[in-house]
Amino acid sequence: MKKQDMNRDWIATARTLSQALPYLQRYTDAIVVIKLGGHAMGSDEAMEEFARDVVLMQQVGVNPVIVHGGGPMINAMLERLDIKSEFVNGKRVTDAATVEVVEMVLSGVVNKRIVQAINGQGGKAVGLSGKDANLMVCDQTNPDLGFVGTPAEMNPKFLKDLFANDTIPVIAPLGAGRNGETFNVNGDTAAGAIAAALKADRLLLLTDVAGVKNAEGDVMTELKAQQIRDLTAEGVIAGGMIPKTETALDAIEGGVRAVVILDGRAPNACLLELFTEHGAGSLIRGD
């Protein structure tokens, strides 16, 4: 690279940092819950980039909380162990054998990989599940689905104590039952419940799509809750986007200031959303 080109890049970088100042100030001491899934969990390079962004967020005063999924890894382990799954209305039945595998994969392999990536970038992360310190006490969602839980009681103080010690929580979506059970919780649902319990400033749902699209297929950058309801009723919001927008509405109703559905495949997606004027993905607010 020519020296002139390098100077131009440095000037652009300095300008970007200067323009970010109001947003850095805006998010000082803010709680940002990030649901990590999809492409951002795929490659080592993507994980390293995500971890670097999370550490940078904390360095500038944000309190990040990571909630992760791990569906493909669970499926691979179930297949390796030759554990067959039953489905009810398209949803996996989580029996006793399956929930043991779910806990092993989520709390073990996936969780520790994310923790290690963040620590490798100079952060101080700790791996948890919703069972730790009764962070997420669950009721059974549907007896037909087995050990699938819906968050019922939360312990946000536990996470706030970690913030006070400059620790980044990385949470596997497992919940404690009232009678000692372990419940598998949908990752988006868990992230929404945790964000609501913390009254988070932002809930970022990282997905493999660019955001919520209108009938013409264009990403809508800002929406109100009623628009989400109308688009769903009209069939514009459909398929896998419905549970994500439902999570967003529940989180906002629970006290989260705003939810953003954004493309986890985009480089530095979280930083673009928080610290630039144009943001990234679809920002959803209450009415």
Automatic annotation (TrEMBL):
It comes from Shimia aestuarii. Residues 31-262 form the Aspartate/glutamate/uridylate kinase domain. It is an enzyme of class 2 (transferase). Pfam families: AA_kinase. One of its GO terms (molecular function) is ATP binding. This is Acetylglutamate kinase. GO terms for cellular component: cytoplasm. Its EC number is 2.7.2.8. It is found in: Cytoplasm. The record marks K35, K244 as: Transition state stabilizer. Catalyzes the ATP-dependent phosphorylation of N-acetyl-L-glutamate.
